[in-house]
Each structure stands twice: as structure tokens, then as C-alpha cells.
Amino acid sequence: MIGYVTVGTNDLTRAARFYDALADEMGVGRMMQSDTYIAWGEPGGGAGVAATKPHDGQAASVGNGTMVALEAKDEAQVDRLHATALANGGTDEGAPGPRGGGFYAAYFRDPDGNKLNAFCMPGQAGG
Question: Which positions fall inside the VOC domain (predicted)?
């Protein structure tokens, strides 16, 4: 079971604006924070997401092939999360739409270049 996923950031204030907006759309808030990181989610809930300045003091970089997937409640929320990401400094990596096999998703990057998607599985439990 995944407890949380961490993405690196070189600008925690900028990352906070981006992830605060996504978390708000998903009905959660910040659950932990310090001068070097912020974590969003719900204690005892599903997996959370954290943005952090790298512990080694080096610049954060994007992992090729690495992506964080955010489970949305329905297609409309996938659409809203994609729009929210773009409105808060994110960049488009794939507009919302069906991807085959009952999978509906949208892809975007946060302001640091970390790739995320919002998805649901219409007609299945949780989607």
C-alpha cells in the first residue's frame, strides 16, 4: 500500500499554490508541513502527495517516466483538475478524455515539471 508520493520542488511557495488548488478540488488540505516540504491528504485516508526541497540541497529534477496519478471521483472532476492545474502554473500533457479500457484521464505537469494525471474509471467502484 502506498502511504504517500513525494515530488521535488525548487520553489516551495509556487508548489504550494499549485497543490493547494488541486487538493482543494479533491476535498483535502495540508496534513503536514515544514520549511522544506508540504504534504497534502487526509490522515488515515488514501495516499497523500508531498512537495519537498531535496534533502541533499541539490536542485530538484524530474524523473523520466515518473508520474503521480490522482484518482478523481468522476469525469467532471478529471476535467476540473486539469483546468485547475493549467490555471495554477501547470502545463498540458494531454487533454481530458477516454484512453481506452474504461479509463478516463488528463495529463499535466506541475510548475517544476513533475508529471501528474487525474483519472477515473467510469462505471467501476471509486470512479
Answer: 1-121
In a domain, 70, yes or no: yes
25 within 8 A of 84, measured Cβ to Cβ: yes
Please, where are the H alpha helices in the chain?
A: 12-25, 75-87
For CA atoms 61, 62, 64, 66, the dihedral sign is: positive
Predicted model pTM: 0.87
pLDDT tens track, the chain, 127 positions = 688 899 999 999 999 999 999 999 999 999 999 999 999 999 888 899 999 999 999 999 988 889 999 999 999 999 999 999 999 999 999 999 999 888 999 999 999 999 999 999 987 655 5
Q: Is the dihedral of CA 82, 107, 56, 3 positive or negative?
A: positive
Q: Please state the domain count of the chain.
A: 1
The residue segments making up the domain with residue 77 are: 4-53+66-120
